[in-house]
């Protein structure tokens, strides 16, 4: 029973580790009972709602938010309890908010529906019983054989069975999946009959999982009366839904994952939400206001019952209670009174603030996307905003964690030099030798010497073979014609010297730019890689002969091993293994006597900022190869723990090699990298470089970026310094940490923050991955936290920190550690590669660079920019402005609601604590929605208290808003006091005016609604004009909304009081506004009160901004009204 | 706490996901528009408030406000006002007996009279107010206890008044017109003013009872049901408010334009006061000729038909005779406030000027932007 239920719910197969697929949906072998397994169909459903469940589901989700729920409760209290304001006053705004959100979400969902529909109804060709049937994409079932032609996207995850290309490959781009636009090669499953109709096979593969780059499976092919053949399937056989077929006429594949089980669909899961510090401040303020609200209600309730206890007050003859009121229990009455006061004052927490903040963030993020300074003509893209929640966080960054490769540097590799057997070779453009291959007299070899030609050629062959580069075929060229290609190459070969230009036009494609640089480097020295065809690699050697090598195995690169190898068989029958990788991972695996000669070169190159790779080789005997081959095949076929098994075999094979040489590849700095880093440091931001690269390389990059200056004292905590003494590593670590701590932290004069005083000694800190893990995972529990603290304190007092040899996870660890350190500083991570994703996700703000290492970083980032230099404007200009804007927005919202509600609170003292509202219901409702919302929204989008150019020029301005300066308790109290002052002025000003309510020259008197309307008019004008005073940047839009909303208020009031509204039970405001304006005294009091309220404001501005700025200066650095003017400017 | 979960961002992942369904066409490579708005380079006016710009403003404000304030103060002082408390709380006062012996049921009305002397003549039109203290007309239960559609002449509301009127909604099963606590507690003292001339005879001062209510109230907001002809018929089937001596259509039988719901005394009462101590316009004493004062100095009698009990809630009743200026009744507050703010501005202006001057001489380079 339970099983059936499970099956119905589709949960049945979850419990099985693998799934079995019958190709062509035919039973594998006749003697087995064929049970068609149930898989989900190929329908993509990315939409959340249907027409039927939209309303309930959406409402439920919206009311799950606490703020909405709070307003719903208030609304319900108003409906149930007899409260002073009608339910409409809070119901209407709530309804508005809910409706707007629902419409927005509905629209988004409609778009999703539309996109889904397009995808699901797309016509695809399915081979069924030898016929080609056109089907809708959603009807594809697991096991169907699907045909895809060039430039079509794959409708589901397919195992490639057949390709129109001769060599059984096809090319795809995964641009829409991960943004990588280069062509990737995928391979057909070997040994498959040409006639797919005859194919009888089953595929066993793992259950769907979201990792795009992992796939494990095996295929059993049954032939007539033969033992079935088993083939391993890997990611290179899997064509992902969403990828596009390129350079291949058509392919056939069998569907393995469909619909919501495709890897693309599984990758939809949203990222974890990040919340900005501003939001936390808002919550803190909210709590304060909630307390104010509760205490106000409590005070009023108490006073009410004190007041009522006097005889004759509770129920005078003119104002009797209804029988129901009389009967109500006293305590229940007290409680409902309390609720009523809550309702009366609930406007102090404005529902509209959330809407405005949301809108500000959403619209504000558009300005980042629109910024043309972020547009990069090379990739023809601008900035990308993935979350608009964090705009203001960009103005609060204290730590920047940056990746090196591709972020600080261009990741545009150029082959600089190489060393073969300890002899240095540098390429020169104007080489005297014919082949452009010369030896420079480096510091090592005093005499120009050359390695033996044999070694040279071995080295170059290694460079040509040990890689995964593909030759990009010219699009016009007929594919699959190896001969044509050869002809072309031959033609080029004749030209000899002018080999490069057309070659470059042809181009190479690889996942890593290092490899291209190396292959291109080999071209310069006369060895040209011509391409891989049918597992044969062709090389054009110096003698213009084509050498052929059969590619037996590729031992792929991975960041843990930090090396890759190939096993090839030459024409002569020798089996060779070529390996290249980082020095640290190669040196232990080669003969030690060879190491020293090369190590010097490698170290020197690394110091100059080049990326170094070591190249090694080994001859494999037939037995060795057979063993390795078997091991590799077995590991590849494994369904479980394939990775681990492969790794073990790799490690086993890659031993006992001999070192041939090393290469040096230059990675140029990004444009304006140094300037950007400098201005970020000027902004008081601490920069940490986290890289997987060697220490020397990274250090030189840091110097080049001016992160380390000449006078910076470097504190090193690396394996080298740790192994210095005779002590154990742990003891040495302890000693060093204490020493550095003394230097960097304790010797600093107290009260001075290191980074702020420029003249004292600067420190730079360097740590590597191994040492870091020692610091973090210390064996002693007690020491571990001590070390961590010491480490953090040292780092916080250094101008720049360099962490090299980092694994991706360690990067995230560091970010996490800093993030959770004292004062919880705001962190920002910037990177471009997949290895930076973890730290991008970990930091408060993650920034992806649209670099060359694919789009994974961009996809996981909060903001993506094309170049590092754009970070400067993003932080210094956009971040600063958005922080100031939103901080002002939040403070202003609290302020304006405080002085809105305070008069209403005070009025209770004059109306017998009867919860009589001071303002009319329409005003209560519209105040936050219409009268005062637009100016602040415009302000929070357009304000530039300091113009962008000045912000970019003076990085120090960024420090003025550091540490959430505008949303700390100080400014909050200032704003609150201002609100209280205004509230008092409004109320008592009008109160004294009303000591004689005969305010007209015909002796007629004004009533309570006139009183409220006068207070409200003063309120609206003061609050709006205060914002006008704060506005430093008046565009026509500001003028329009500020004067427009005041005009709207006046027009609305006339209109509201001008007609007897049939739907209103009480015509309270009938002609009140017009009557009010006909009284001169009222005019005078309105002007007086507005002026009086704004007087302190003006004074503050003037005193804070005393006479200093001369006109031109003033025009440049327009002084902020809302926070302290910077001392530097005076 | 509340904002934490209030975010619409959880949907943000989806649109981008959905767009990638579309295949290769989804890649955007648009260059951002180079418009002033999108580049945040809209031409803007950047006002700077410095002492230089604010100083003149302070002086100007000071110079404008002080004269206005003086004008207001003088005007307010020139307004003549005379106030008589006739509550009868004090044993010596003439209305003491009326106040003490008051009962709702008594058919005979208690009359008392107060004698007072005006030292100075009241020259222009004189406005006669009654004032109540400690009377919470702004109490919520009271304020809402009315039915505006009934008062607007709506037939259905007349026969079926709003629930807000409880407990003054029905009486003996018949709907009350006008319903509600406000109408029920209509001020019903009758005040008459007599001038005692030099030879001792009492002359009734003519009191005008029209023009005391807001024009819009009388002509728009308040309307009798079924037009103004024959109110007795129009109000048939309704009951009078319990505290009233006579039904609404007998409020002023002499003048059909001032009867029923559009009776001005009634309308004035229905406009609830803002504060518990308030005054309401009762009558107007019009100036007869330019030569004689409206109320010459001398001895006066105020005759009161004492119907309205206030001692039960510790209230007070007053009659106020007041002239009116362009700014309304006597109220020194505005004048004083204007003078204070004006001088404050002026003073601040001086202080700022001194600071400015000092600063200026120290840094001769700093000049005032204008």
Give an overview in words:
The complex is a heterodimer of chains A (1130) and B (370). With 1130 residues, chain A is α+β, with helices and mostly antiparallel strands. Helices cover 45% and strands 17% of the residues of chain A. Chain A contains 38 helices and 33 strands. In chain A, the strands form 6 sheets. Chain A has a 9-stranded mixed sheet, with helices on both faces. Chain A is elongated and about 120 Å long. Chain B is built from 11 helices and 10 strands. Chain B starts with 12 loop residues before the first helix and ends in an 8-residue tail after the last helix. In chain B, strand 6 and strand 7 (202-204) form a beta hairpin. In chain B, helix 2 packs antiparallel against helix 11. Helix content of chain B is 29%, strand content 16%. Chain B has 2 domains: 53-79 and 330-357; 82-324, no CATH class. Chain B is extended, with a radius of gyration of 32 Å. The longest helix of chain B has 31 residues, at 332-362. At the A-B interface, helix 3, helix 4, helix 5, helix 7 and helix 10 of A face helix 1, helix 2, helix 4, helix 8 and strand 8 of B. Chain A: It comes from Monopterus albus. Chain A: It is an enzyme of class 7 (translocase). Chain A: Residues 120-263 form the P-type ATPase A domain.
Helix content of chain B: 25-40%
What low-confidence regions of chain A span 5 or more consecutive residues with pLDDT below 50? 1-15, 429-448, 475-505, 750-759, 1106-1130
How many helices of chain B does DSSP assign? 11
Overall form of chain A: elongated
Provide the β-strand percentage band of chain A.
15-25%
Give helix % range of chain A.
Answer: 40-55%
Give the overall average pLDDT of chain B: 83
Distance between the termini of chain A: 82 Å
Broad structural category of chain A: alpha+beta
Query: In total, how many beta strands of chain A?
Result: 33
The Cα radius of gyration of chain B reads 32 Å
Structural class of chain B: alpha+beta
Give the amount of beta strand of chain B, in percent: 15-25%
Elements of chain B, N to C (H/E): HHEHEEHHHEEHEEHHHEEEH
């Amino acid at each position: 029973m339970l099983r059936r239920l499970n099956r119905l719910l589709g949960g049945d197969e979850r419990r099985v580790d693998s799934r079995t697929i019958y190709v062509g949906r035919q039973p594998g072998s006749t003697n087995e009972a064929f049970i068609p397994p149930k898989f989900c169909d190929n329908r993509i459903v990315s939409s959340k709602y249907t027409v039927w469940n939209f309303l309930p589901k959406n409402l439920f989700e919206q009311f799950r938010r606490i703020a909405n729920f709070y307003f719903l409760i208030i609304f319900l209290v108003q409906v149930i309890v007899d409260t002073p304001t009608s339910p409409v006053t809070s119901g209407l705004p709530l309804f508005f908010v809910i409706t707007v959100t629902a419409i927005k979400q509905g629209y988004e969902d409609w778009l999703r529906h539309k996109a889904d529909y397009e995808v699901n109804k797309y016509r695809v060709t399915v081979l069924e019983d030898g016929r080609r049937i056109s089907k809708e994409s959603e009807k594809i079932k697991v096991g169907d054989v699907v045909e895809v032609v060039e430039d079509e996207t794959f409708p589901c995850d397919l195992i490639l069975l057949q390709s129109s290309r001769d060599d059984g490959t096809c090319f795809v781009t995964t641009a829409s999946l991960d943004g990588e636009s280069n062509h990737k090669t995928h391979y057909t499953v070997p040994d498959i009959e040409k006639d797919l109709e005859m194919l009888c096979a089953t595929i066993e593969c793992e259950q769907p999982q979201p990792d795009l780059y992992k796939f494990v499976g095996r295929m059993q092919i049954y032939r007539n009366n033969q033992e079935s053949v088993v083939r391993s399937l890997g990611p290179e056989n899997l064509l992902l839904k969403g990828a596009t077929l390129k350079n291949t006429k058509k392919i056939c594949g069998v569907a393995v994952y469909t619909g919501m089980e495709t890897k693309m669909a599984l990758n939809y899961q949203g990222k974890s939400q990040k919340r900005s510090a501003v939001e936390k401040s808002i919550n803190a303020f909210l709590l304060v206001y909630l307390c104010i609200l509760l205490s106000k209600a409590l005070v009023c309730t108490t006073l009410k019952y004190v007041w009522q206890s006097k005889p004759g007050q509770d129920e005078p003859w003119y104002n009797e209670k209804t029988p129901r009121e009389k009967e109500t229990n006293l305590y229940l009455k007290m409680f409902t009174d309390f609720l009523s006061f809550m309702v009366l004052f609930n406007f102090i927490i404005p529902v509209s603030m959330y809407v405005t903040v949301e809108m500000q963030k959403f619209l504000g993020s558009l300005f980042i996307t629109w910024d043309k300074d972020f547009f990069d003509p090379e990739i023809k893209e601008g900035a990308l905003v993935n979350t608009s929640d964090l705009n203001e966080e960009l103005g609060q960054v204290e730590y920047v964690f940056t990746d090196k490769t591709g972020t600080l540097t261009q990741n545009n590799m150029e082959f600089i030099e190489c060393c073969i057997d300890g002899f240095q070779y540098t390429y020169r453009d104007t080489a005297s030798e014919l082949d452009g291959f010369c030896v420079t007299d480096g510091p090592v070899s005093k005499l120009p010497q050359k390695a033996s030609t044999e070694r040279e050629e071995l080295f170059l062959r290694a460079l040509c073979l040990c890689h995964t580069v593909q030759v990009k075929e010219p699009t016009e060229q007929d594919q699959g014609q190896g001969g044509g290609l050869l002809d072309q190459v031959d033609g080029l070969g004749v030209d000899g010297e002018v080999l490069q230009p057309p070659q470059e036009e042809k181009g190479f494609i690889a996942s890593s730019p290092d490899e291209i640089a190396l292959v291109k480097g080999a071209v310069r020295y006369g060895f040209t890689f011509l391409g891989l065809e049918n597992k044969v690699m062709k090389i054009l050697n110096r003698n213009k002969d084509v050498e052929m090598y059969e590619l037996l195995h590729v031992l792929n690169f991975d960041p843990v091993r930090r090396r890759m190898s190939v096993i090839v068989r030459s024409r002569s029958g020798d089996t060779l293994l070529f390996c290249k990788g980082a020095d640290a991972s190669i040196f232990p695996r080669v003969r030690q006597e060879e190491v020293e000669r090369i190590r010097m070169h490698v170290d020197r190159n690394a110091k100059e900022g080049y990326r170094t790779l070591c190249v090694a080789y080994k001859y494999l005997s037939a037995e060795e190869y057979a063993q390795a081959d078997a091991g590799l095949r077995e590991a590849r076929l494994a369904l479980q723990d394939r990775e681990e098994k492969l790794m073990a075999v790799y490690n086993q094979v890659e031993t006992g090699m001999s070192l041939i040489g090393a290469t040096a590849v230059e990675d140029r700095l990004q444009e304006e990298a140094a300037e950007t880093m400098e201005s970020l440091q000027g902004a008081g931001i601490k920069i940490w470089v986290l890289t997987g690269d060697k220490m020397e390389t990274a250090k030189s990059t840091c110097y080049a970026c001016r992160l380390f200056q000449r006078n910076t004292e470097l504190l090193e905590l690396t394996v080298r310094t740790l192994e210095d003494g005779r002590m154990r590593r742990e003891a040495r670590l302890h000693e060093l940490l204490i020493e550095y701590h003394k230097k960097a932290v304790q010797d600093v004069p107290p009260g001075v923050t290191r980074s702020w005083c420029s003249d004292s000694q600067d420190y730079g800190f360097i740590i590597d991955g191994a040492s870091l893990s020692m610091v973090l995972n210390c064996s002693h529990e007690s020491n571990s936290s001590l070390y961590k603290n010491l480490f953090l304190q040292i780092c916080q007092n250094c101008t720049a920190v360099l962490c090299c040899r980092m694994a991706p996870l360690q990067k995230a660890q560091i970010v996490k550690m800093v993030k959770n350190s004292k004062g919880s500083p705001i962190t920002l991570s910037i990177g471009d590669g997949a290895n930076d994703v973890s730290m991008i996700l970990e930091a408060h703000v993650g920034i992806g660079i649209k670099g060359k290492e694919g789009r994974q970083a961009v996809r996981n980032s909060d903001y993506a920019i094309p170049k590092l230099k754009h970070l400067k404007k993003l932080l210094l200009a956009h971040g600063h402005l958005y922080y100031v804007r939103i901080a002002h927005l939040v403070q202003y919202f609290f302020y304006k609601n405080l002085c809105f509600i305070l008069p209403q609170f005070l009025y209770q003292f004059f109306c017998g604590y009867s919860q009589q509202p001071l303002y009319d219901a329409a005003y209560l409702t519209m105040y936050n929605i219409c009268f005062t919302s637009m100016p602040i929204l415009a302000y929070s989008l357009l304000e530039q208290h300091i113009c962008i150019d000045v912000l970019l020029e003076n990085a120090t301005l960024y420090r003025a808003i550091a540490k959430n300066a505008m949303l700390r308790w100080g400014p909050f109290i200032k704003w609150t006091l201002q609100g209280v002052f205004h509230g008092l002025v409004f109320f008592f000003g009008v109160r004294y005016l009303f000591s004689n309510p005969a305010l007209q020259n015909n002796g007629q008197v004004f009533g309570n609604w006139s009183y409220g309307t006068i207070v409200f008019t003063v309120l609206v004008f003061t609050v709006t004009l205060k914002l006008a005073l704060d506005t430093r940047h008046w565009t026509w839009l500001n003028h329009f909304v500020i004067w427009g909303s005041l005009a709207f208020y006046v027009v609305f009031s006339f209109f509201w009081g001008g007609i007897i509204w049939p739907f209103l039970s009480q015509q309270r405001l009938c002609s009140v506004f017009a009557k009010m304006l006909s009284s001169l005294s009222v005019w005078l009091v309105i002007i007086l009160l507005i002026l009086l309220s704004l007087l302190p404001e003006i004074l503050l501005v003037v005193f804070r901004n005393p006479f200093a700025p001369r006109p031109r200066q003033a025009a440049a650095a327009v002084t902020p009204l809302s926070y302290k003017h910077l001392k530097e400017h005076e | 706490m509340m904002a934490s979960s209030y975010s619409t961002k959880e949907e943000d992942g989806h649109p981008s996901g959905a767009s990638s369904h579309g295949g290769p066409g989804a890649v955007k490579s648009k260059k951002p528009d180079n418009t002033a708005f999108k580049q945040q380079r809209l031409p803007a006016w950047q006002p700077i408030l410095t002492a230089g710009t604010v100083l003149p403003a302070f002086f100007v404000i000071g110079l404008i406000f002080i004269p206005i304030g003086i004008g207001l103060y003088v005007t307010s002082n020139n307004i003549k006002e005379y106030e008589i408390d006739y509550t009868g709380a004090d044993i010596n006062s003439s209305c003491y007996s009326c106040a003490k012996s008051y009962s709702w049921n008594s058919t005979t009305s208690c009359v008392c009279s107060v004698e007072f002397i005006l030292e100075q003549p009241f020259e222009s039109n004189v406005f006669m107010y009654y004032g109540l203290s400690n009377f919470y007309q702004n109490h919520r239960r009271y304020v809402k206890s009315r039915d505006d559609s009934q008062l607007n002449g709506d037939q259905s509301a007349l026969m079926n008044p709003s629930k807000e009127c409880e407990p003054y909604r029905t009486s003996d099963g018949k709907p009350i017109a006008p319903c509600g606590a406000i109408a029920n507690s209509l001020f019903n003292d009758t005040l008459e003013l007599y001038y005692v001339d030099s030879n001792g005879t009492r002359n009734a001062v003519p009191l005008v009872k029209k023009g005391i209510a807001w024009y819009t109230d009388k002509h728009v907001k308040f309307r009798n049901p079924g037009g103004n002809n024959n109110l007795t018929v129009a109000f048939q089937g309704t009951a009078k408010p319990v505290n009233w001596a006579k039904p609404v259509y007998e409020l002023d039988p002499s003048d059909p334009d001032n009867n029923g719901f559009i009776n001005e005394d009634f309308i004035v009462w229905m406009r609830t006061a803002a504060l518990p101590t308030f005054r309401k316009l009762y009558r107007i004493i019009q100036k007869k000729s330019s030569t004689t004062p409206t109320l010459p100095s001398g001895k006066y009698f105020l005759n009161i038909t004492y119907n309205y009990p206030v001692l039960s809630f510790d209230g007070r009743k007053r009659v106020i005779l007041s002239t009116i200026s362009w700014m309304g009744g006597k109220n020194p507050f505005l004048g004083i406030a204007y003078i204070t703010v004006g001088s404050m501005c002026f003073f601040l202006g001086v202080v700022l000027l001194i600071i400015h001057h000092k600063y200026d001489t120290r840094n001769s380079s700093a000049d005032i932007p204008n």
